[in-house]
Amino acid sequence: MRGSLPSSQVGPRRPLCPQVPTRRARLSPAPAPASSPGPGKMRRGPRGPRGCSLAGVTLLAAALGAVLLLCSATAAAASSLHTGAAINVFSRYGYFAISMRVVPRNETDRWIFREPSVNVFKNITALPPRSPSAAARHNGRVPVFEGDFHMEFCDNLRQLLQAYFRDFQVERLERPWSAFTASWSRNAMAKHLGLNATYVAGSHCYVLVRVARHRESGRMAPAQPGVPVEDFVAKDRDLVVPGDTESVVEWVKSFGSHYVASYVTGNSLYQVFVYTPHIYRRIKERLKTQGVAALSAVELASYFSPWYAEHMGRIQSASGNYTVEAWAASQLRVNFYFFAYPSLIKLHGDVGLLKTLDGLLQNEAVLQLDLRTLAPVFQSPERRHWFNEVVDNQLKLWEVNMS
Ligand SMILES: *[C@@H]1O[C@H](CO)[C@@H](O)[C@H](O)[C@H]1NC(C)=O
Ligand SMILES: *[C@@H]1O[C@H](CO)[C@@H](O)[C@H](O)[C@H]1NC(C)=O
Ligand SMILES: *[C@@H]1O[C@H](CO)[C@@H](O)[C@H](O)[C@H]1NC(C)=O
Ligand SMILES: *[C@@H]1O[C@H](CO)[C@@H](O)[C@H](O)[C@H]1NC(C)=O
After folding, report:
1. What is the pTM of this model?
2. Where along the chain is composition biased (Polar residues) (predicted)?
3. Above 60 in pLDDT, residue 327?
4. Which ligand sits closest to the CA of 196?
5. pLDDT digits (tens, 9 = 90+) for 308-324
6. Which residue puts its alpha carbon closest to atom 6 of ligand 3?
7. Could you identify the atom of ligand 3 that is nearest to the CA of residue 197?
8. Taking CA atoms, which of 1, 21, 332, 336 is between 20 and 30 Å from 127?
9. Nearest atom, ligand 2, residue 228 CA
10. What is the pLDDT of residue 159?
11. What is the mean pLDDT of the chain?
């Protein structure tokens, strides 16, 4: 039993992101050599003004994995997702998951992103990925698992949905996760989260454990006011009339409301553990004060076993890849006293499994997305201002109507 959760490779406690005090626990990969910042730094980008909504989601800093520098293959598959692509968020609010692969879908087509988009910008300045892995690769040394392994404590279902979509931002939308989830029924929620429907109602607490393998990414310099745009866009810029809401709505139908400022695609495995509030608070408190690294293997295993958990969700992959899920169901099986169950926690510090998984998780789903408004397209400050005002109002209306 102990063997399945090696603790010898547990790394030191990692400092938290300074701007966002409590967000999530990092499980791995552990700190890289001083010369190359570890992949954990990947998420240290600026976040939207979401500080308030994050309150209560507890973050536990902990580095679980070992840093192992080996060569790993790069993925080839491409998707239609690219920086500068402008999409109409108004038309899709609550239904983002229809056109972006973010949760398992019952279909065999391999699309990742199929939202109609328009290339509005003439000249996009690509920025290097936030991930330091590219730099690391130049030295011929990349981590055994290129991505991110974390756990997040969620006091309720809303926080769980928020946590699942933590890496998705839509400028001017206060609750970006709702752009995906507002249309989900209880049953759909249970299915997407890998839970028995009993546990998406009533009073339960959750821990989301996820290991995300990054494959492709893109990031552009944010568009500045008056940014050069394609001629067909420039021609119609004047159609937006300050004070006229309909003029913005019509313009958005043709050119979109937001553009893709950055994205990461790849695939992930995730599992949700459900607890009664009482047990949850105990575990959360224990982990908050001690960190994952301080727990014994047995203690960690027990917290994420039916011993403490009210319910253990299925291990699912974001893309719904059956091969990967079948691998997880068999290879991540843990025996703990008289229980036997698949658990993502088994990956904790297990280099061999992480390495296998690194190869299994291909480029099949959207993992991160940052959408910004197209306001900079307008040269006149009045138009920009009006555009944003209408975008704000439309999105707020949606948020109110669909919640
Ligand atoms: C997928 O859809 C088909 C047809 O709609 C259905 O028969 C099948 O049970 C579904 N599978 C899952 C896993 O939902
Ligand atoms: C594109 O952007 C770069 C950097 O901002 C600039 O140096 C270059 O002149 C621009 N090219 C055009 C055609 O606007
Ligand atoms: C879901 O959980 C309830 C309560 O534990 C149980 O009665 C039911 O059989 C479960 N359903 C499935 C599909 O596992
Ligand atoms: C699922 O993942 C496996 C392992 O990486 C891969 O070989 C297979 O092509 C993937 N299947 C689909 C439908 O993407």
Report:
1. 0.80
2. 1-10
3. yes
4. 3
5. 999 999 999 999 999 99
6. 198
7. 1
8. 21
9. 14
10. 96
11. 80
Residues in the chain: 403
pLDDT in tens, 66-81: 222 222 222 333 358 9
198 lines ligand 3 (CB under 6 A): yes
At residue 37, the pLDDT reads 31
Ligand 4 geometric centre to CA of 107 (Å): 13
- pLDDT (average), residues 119-135: 77
Residues with CB under 6 A from ligand 4: 110, 321, 323-324, 360, 362, 364
